[in-house]
Design brief:
Blueprint: H1 12-19, H2 21-26, E1 55-58, H3 60-64, H4 72-75, E2 82-85, E3 98-101, E4 110-113, E5 116-117, H5 131-134, E6 140-146, E7 163-168, E8 176-184, E9 188-196, E10 204-214, E11 224-237, E12 240-254, H6 261-267, H7 278-285, E13 303-321, E14 324-343, E15 355-376, E16 379-400, E17 416-438, E18 443-462, E19 468-473, E20 477-485, E21 490-501, H8 515-521, E22 528-540, E23 544-556, E24 559-562, E25 574-577, E26 581-595, E27 598-611, E28 615-617, E29 620-622, E30 635-645, E31 648-657, E32 660-661, E33 669-670, E34 673-687, E35 690-700, E36 708-711, E37 728-730, E38 735-743
Parallel strand pairs: 4-7
Antiparallel strand pairs: 1-6, 2-3, 4-5, 6-7, 8-9, 8-38, 9-10, 10-11, 11-12, 12-13, 13-14, 14-15, 15-16, 16-17, 17-18, 18-19, 18-20, 20-21, 21-22, 22-23, 23-26, 24-25, 26-27, 27-30, 28-29, 30-31, 31-34, 32-33, 34-35, 35-38, 36-37
Main location: membrane
Protein name: TonB-dependent receptor
Family: Belongs to the TonB-dependent receptor family.
């Protein structure tokens, strides 16, 4: 087995980039403007002025400081209230990705790309796709985060908590080619090329881009590969705009082994699956262990995820009168995915005690959404709708395994099928809102409501999983907010909202139970709802700006999935209504402009999320009342220094994450940790035909801290006193990446 590399290896080509630095710097133009029109290392915007909710924007300049290929979700972890975890340095390995805001996990948040819903972006997804597959990070212009409750018009029926809205970097007005080459630790090689047509006579412009990512795992063996194509075209028609896009992604990622506390002590934090040692995996499946291994579940041969996605849409943006605007968008998303797991629990034959267990997904979503904005005196009226039909297929198959050769494609012709389900989900949602401006605009009050209805029709063709029809709907989910300008620099805000999360089809919803289990749980099954409030203040001075907010959330009818066996066995789970959860917290953000070239960014979060109800599991009382919510750190603190002058730029940041429980009874947890990251570089200017040349280095986990990042990778258990639950994943060690970028 390949040994893990905790210390980065400087590839020969990376070193060659350093050797050309002096030659390029000789003709550098430090004053050359950034293509995005802002200093590349600008600090995150403390935005939300006029918003009645806690809102911040991550700008294009802020996204550029991350290592190319880094998930945009990872760049948000510096914001107050946000917790992000992953087992890889880029935060794009989807099995391990965990994202939460104010104690609400990823499945309870809303995500959109240019208003198009991305679903909950979970690994075994049924209603969307991860942002890392939806678009290359270089093509994102900004990200807006609403920590409390998202805007009423957000196309999501997941968002009990906040929303994350990604906005594409549109086609440039001038023609050009942008390219970037990244090389670094663990054989990472990533190439990005984008062509902008510039604006033609008549007002048409477009871009196309291609991305190729090749990397090895930081421990064990196996590739993490992705190919992407993005395109967008826009045309001005008088005061109106017609735009369309098409994005494609082909991602193949080999899994890291899930750990337990006991395994980490016995085998080490860098323990991984057997691949490519096929014979050792076969021996283990026969009960013949070697080294410190003493269990069938200590390692498997290989696991991986394959995903192909096509996402397309068109938008007509109309400015009907100076006071009346409308927008309508249609979209399609097609997905095929397979998760491969070499299981010793289902043999291929007497000679080969291993088979390949797959979970296979297809998604076909078609939707339309629209809204109208009408300014009428002191009123701004908004109304809109969203409709979607989603056809989702879910299959558990077993394929014969003959040897240990790496299979990097979709399997066909299974030897048996565990279950086969289909789901048709119809979503209808509309909203109405009025914003009233008083006191010469210093006081703004907004009030409105949304009305969602989500119906799932499930059919089980093979196996004993549940089927039937279930509907989640609310006629009136209100939202109210107010902002008041104390001065040009200070603003107060407050908001309250009621939200509902619809039932989920697929591997984690109520239809993932057996028919008998579903029959027992349906009486207590209700759609999850939340009531959220936040109150805060924003302030801006010449040298300091920031915000502070306090919040409260009540979460009713929480539906909790309980694993009934090891993840690889794939037993049907159970769904339990665990009642109420309450959250109280405080968020603070401050940016200090120490000097024109030096800024200091800080955020602090205190979040107290507790279960307020006990529950029963098979007649046994589970006393979780008063316990902390799993994977919800109480305290987080982020600090970052940024320097930008004379062509040089650098950022040094660190984040503290408090301990996190992974059992509902809080009898086991992972400890707190601090991880630091460094990025820096030099803007080289022009060299021949090349413009805006920039050399950048990114160092993740700067001090090579060993820690548990992801928890709950195989779900959460009521108790794990012995520390044997295999649901933890190690964070990536120190990694180094070099990027040379420029334009033609």
């Amino acid at each position: 087995m390949r040994q893990p590399s905790y210390h980065p290896r400087l590839k020969p080509l990376c070193l060659s980039l350093l050797t050309v630095l002096p030659a390029l710097a000789f003709g550098a133009d430090p004053a050359a403007p950034d293509p995005a029109g802002a200093p590349p290392m600008a600090i995150v915007e403390v935005t939300g002025t006029g918003q009645s909710r806690q809102v911040q924007n991550i700008t294009r300049a802020d996204l550029q400081q991350a290592a190319p290929g880094t998930s945009p979700l990872k760049t948000l972890e510096k914001l107050p209230g946000v917790s992000f975890q992953s087992a890889d340095p880029f935060g794009s390995y989807e099995w391990s990705t965990r994202f939460s805001i104010r104690g609400f996990n990823q499945n309870q948040l809303g995500f959109t790309l240019d208003d198009i819903p991305l679903g909950d972006m979970s690994y075994g997804n049924n209603n969307g796709l991860h942002i890392s597959r939806a678009i290359s990070s270089e093509n994102i212009g900004r990200v807006a985060v609403s920590q409390g409750a998202g805007a009423l018009g957000t196309a999501s029926t997941n968002n009990l908590g906040g929303t994350v809205q990604f906005v594409t970097l549109g086609p440039a007005n001038e023609a050009g080619v942008t390219a970037a080459q990244t090389l670094g630790s663990d054989d990472t090689a990533r190439t990005f090329v984008r062509f902008d047509s510039g604006e033609f006579a008549g007002g048409t412009k477009f871009y196309i881009s291609g991305t190729r990512m090749r990397s090895e795992k930081w421990k064990g063996a196996g590739p993490q590969d992705q190919d992407q194509f993005n395109s967008r075209i826009e045309r001005r028609i008088g005061e109106h705009t017609l735009s369309a896009f098409f994005n494609y992604s082909d991602r193949r990622e080999v899994d890291y082994q899930d750990l337990s506390h006991e395994m980490a002590r016995r085998l080490g934090m860098d323990w991984d699956n057997y691949y490519p040692d096929w014979q050792r995996a076969v021996n283990a499946a026969k009960g013949i262990y070697s080294g410190a291994v003493n269990s069938l579940d200590d390692a498997y041969y290989l696991g991986q995820g394959l995903r192909k996605d096509k996402l397309a849409g068109a938008t007509l943006d109309l400015q009907l009168t100076p006071a009346l605007a409308a927008k309508v968008t249609g979209y399609h998303h097609g997905n095929e995915g397979q998760g491969h797991w070499y299981t010793p629990y289902t043999p291929t034959s007497a000679e080969v005690p291993i088979s390949i267990r797959t979970t296979e997904y297809t998604i076909s979503r078609n939707g339309v959404l629209g809204d109208v904005t009408w300014e009428l005196g002191m009123h701004t009226l908004n109304a809109g709708f969203w409709a979607e039909r989603n056809k989702h297929m879910l299959t558990r198959n077993f394929y014969a395994a003959t040897d240990g050769r790496y299979i990097d494609d979709f399997l066909r012709g299974p030897m048996s099928t565990g279950f086969l389900q289909s789901f048709v989900t119809d979503t209808r949602q509309f909203y109405v809102q009025d914003t009233i401006a008083l006191l010469d605009g210093r006081l703004k009050i907004n009030a409105g409501f949304k009305s969602p209805k989500v119906e799932i029709d499930a059919h089980t063709f093979i196996g004993d999983r549940a089927d039937g029809t279930i509907t989640a709907k609310k006629t009136f989910l209100p939202q109210v907010g107010v902002t008041y300008q104390l001065s040009r620099s200070d603003e107060l805000f407050a908001s309250g909202a009621k939200n509902m999360r619809s039932y989920q089809p697929g591997v984690n919803g109520p239809f993932s139970q057996t028919r008998a289990g579903y029959a027992l749980s349906i009486g207590e099954l209700k759609p999850e709802t939340s009531t959220t409030f936040d109150v805060g203040m924003r302030f801006k001075r010449d040298a300091v700006q920031g915000s502070v907010a306090v919040y409260y959330a009540k979460f009713d009818d929480r539906q909790m999935g309980i694993a009934t066996c090891a993840g690889i066995v794939g037993c049907a789970g159970t769904i339990v209504n665990v009642g109420k959860v309450e959250t109280r917290g405080l968020e603070a953000l401050a940016v200090w402009k120490i000097a024109p070239s030096l800024s200091w960014f800080n955020t602090f979060t205190y979040n107290d999320s507790t279960y307020e109800s006990n529950y029963t599991d098979n007649g046994r009382l589970v006393a979780v009342k008063g316990k902390q919510v799993v994977d919800a750190p109480k305290k987080m603190f982020n600090t970052e220094l940024a320097y930008d002058a004379n062509g040089f730029f650098a950022r040094l940041g660190a984040k503290y994450t408090d301990k996190r429980y992974y059992t509902y009874l809080n009898d086991n947890s992972v400890p707190s940790y601090v991880v630091a990251n460094l990025s820096g570089g030099y803007r080289l200017g022009s060299a021949g035909m090349l413009k805006d040349l920039t050399l950048q280095v990114n160092v993740t986990n700067l001090f090579d801290r060993s820690y548990f990042g992801t928890i709950g990778s195989n779900g959460f258990a009521a108790s794990d006193v012995q520390g044997t639950s295999m649901t933890l994943m190690s964070g990536a060690p120190r990694q180094v990446f070099f990027t040379l970028s420029g334009k033609l």
